[in-house]
Structure to design on (182 residues):
């Protein structure tokens, strides 16, 4: 299974450095013009990666709006793609959470925010198993989720996720996730 993942376009909260998590924050429409060139560049990569068996978004509006900016109107909403629940840290600066939870970088599987990170990892594995019969999936997702999948691809678990950078509107091709679901 190959996943082509695009992190959602920025929201006002992204620009302020606030954690969104499960909050349903829309993309910043006035920011889209700043991302037109990157969207165009990503679309060229998407053309080369086609065809896709499925095009998925999370249940949060920012991923659906990003898919629309790419010209995908008919996507399938998949709640397993939803962002990590940051609990009490949602709406607060990411720097506060990092300062108060040193495990965030070194050993995130030990953390319990609004969602236990071990459960978050389980949700991602469930996603990979559910969609394992497909050859190629395009998904519009969230930073923590995509970083976690990259970590799973690399080391078999999510412990490296917070050492990976994932910008808004960044495209990642995760080539072979068959090992991750065994």
């Amino acid at each position: 299974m190959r996943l082509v993942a695009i992190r959602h376009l920025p929201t006002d909260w992204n620009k302020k450095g606030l954690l969104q998590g499960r909050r349903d924050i829309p993309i910043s429409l006035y920011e889209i013009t700043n991302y037109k060139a990157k969207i165009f560049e990503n679309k060229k990569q998407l053309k080369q990666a086609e065809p896709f068996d499925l095009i998925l978004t999370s249940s949060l509006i920012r991923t659906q709006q990003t898919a629309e900016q790419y010209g995908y109107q008919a996507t399938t909403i998949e709640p397993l793609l939803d962002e990590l629940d940051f609990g009490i840290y949602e709406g607060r600066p990411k720097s506060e959470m990092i300062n108060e939870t040193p495990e965030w970088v070194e050993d995130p599987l030990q953390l319990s925010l609004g969602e236990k990170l071990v459960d978050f990892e389980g949700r991602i594995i469930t996603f990979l198993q559910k969609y394992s019969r497909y050859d190629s999936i395009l998904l519009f997702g969230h930073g923590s989720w995509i970083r976690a999948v990259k970590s799973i691809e690399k080391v078999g678990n999510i412990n490296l996720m917070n050492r990976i950078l994932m910008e808004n509107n960044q495209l990642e091709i995760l080539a072979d996730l068959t090992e991750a679901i065994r």
Q: What stands out?
A: The chain has seven helices and five strands. Residues 83 and 145 are 6 Å apart (CA to CA). The longest helix spans residues 32-49. Helices lie at 12-16, 32-49, 61-69, 94-100, 103-106, 117-130, 143-155.
